[in-house]
Design brief:
This protein has 13 helices and no strands. The protein is an all-alpha fold.
């Protein structure tokens, strides 16, 4: 935006368009997957969208290119996330993998990508210029295309597409409660994590390297926890794991908001990674348990809940920090987390009543 000489607030226009388009495309593609469309075709469309968007920004660098061809291509690219979650679930069922463990690996790879991507982008931009970032992204897209061509069977499709879902109001209500809880988790996470770097430097008086160190501790803990959640799911139900995650999250927000030194920051960052790793490792399997024969739709709703939660939390953090402080924004993350816990406890109570009525 700076190189194109546009005001920074216009980034929000792109972000809003990208979220709306991604959510819409996720729903549309999920419906096609549940009707039996091939995974390879839809992932290939995502790769093509990504490449077209990158080349358009490279060869015709302008704001209007970004919010037209660029945002459409990148949104189509982002839709591949829920498609791959559906492909992973079907593959786990077909080849006899542990479903919870396989879902955990998928979420761990997603978190690893989110951890590496921004850091690499800023490093490349700082070393060789912002436009070089798109060149490296295009090279990554070519690697993605190669893996797609070599690993995804051309005829793979969702076997559940042939099953007729049971249109019961109870199953639909349970699915939407699960998705709503994930939305609140996402909002709480983004509200806290987006306020933390500026809180550390401007209000807590920590050194400039503190945000990077905090992020490293958080993501390392997160990935370790994600990969250990299959062991937890052998002993506890996914719902119990999410309730535990919400409790740890509340503790993390309180600790982080009171940080005055690097030791407190490290403890808070570890708690943050623990709660979000537990959420990430459990939530996908939890939402899929309410798919009711439409697995792709459940995965799309799950991914959309994360995007919408982030869309709500991002501007909210800015408004809260503008009129109060970044510390208040971190504490404000307790509110959506409490809402998530309320939804989960309502779900738990409903499940107990259902078990009593059937016994």
């Amino acid at each position: 935006m700076q190189e194109l000489d546009h005001p920074l607030w216009q980034i929000s226009v792109y972000s809003a368009l990208a979220i709306v388009l991604t959510v819409t495309l996720n729903r549309s593609i999920a419906a096609r997957l549940d009707r039996g469309w091939r995974f390879a075709l839809l992932v290939g469309m995502s790769i093509a969208g990504n490449c077209v968007a990158l080349m358009s920004v490279l060869f015709w660098p302008s704001y209007w290119t970004l919010i037209t061809v660029g945002v459409l291509g990148f949104s189509l690219s982002s839709s591949s996330l829920s498609t791959m979650y559906s492909f992973g679930r079907i593959s786990a069922e077909r080849y006899g993998f542990d479903i919870a463990g396989f879902n955990a690996w998928l979420r761990a790879m997603t978190s690893l990508g989110w951890m590496m991507g921004p850091a690499l982008a800023f490093f490349i931009a700082g070393q060789w210029g912002a436009d070089r970032t798109f060149v490296f992204a295009l090279l990554a897209a070519l690697v993605w295309a190669t893996l797609w061509w070599r690993t995804i069977p051309r005829d793979a499709r969702a076997e559940v597409a042939d099953k007729q879902p049971q249109n019961t109001s109870g199953a639909e209500r349970a699915l939407w409660l699960a998705v709503t809880a994930c939305l609140f988790f996402s909002a709480a996470h983004v509200l806290c994590s987006s306020a933390l770097p500026l809180f550390y430097v401007r209000e807590a008086g920590l050194p400039d390297f503190a945000p990077g160190l905090s992020f490293s501790i958080k993501t390392a803990t997160e990935i370790v926890i994600i990969l250990t959640t299959p062991v937890l799911l052998r002993r506890f139900a996914p719902l119990s794991g999410l309730i535990l995650s919400g409790g740890i999250g509340l503790c993390a927000f309180i600790v982080l908001s009171q940080v005055t030194g690097l030791t407190g920051m490290a403890i808070g960052s570890a708690l943050e990674g623990a709660y979000y790793g537990l959420f990430a490792g459990v939530s996908l399997t939890y939402v899929q348990s309410f798919a009711n024969g439409r697995m792709a739709r459940a995965n799309a709703l799950y991914v959309n809940s994360l995007f919408v939660g982030a869309l709500i939390a991002g501007p909210s953090m800015g408004i809260i920090a503008q009129f109060t402080s970044f510390q208040t924004a971190i504490l404000a993350a307790c509110l959506p987390m409490l809402c998530a816990l309320t939804v989960l406890l309502v779900t738990q109570r409903s499940e107990r009543r259902s078990d009593l009525s059937t016994s």
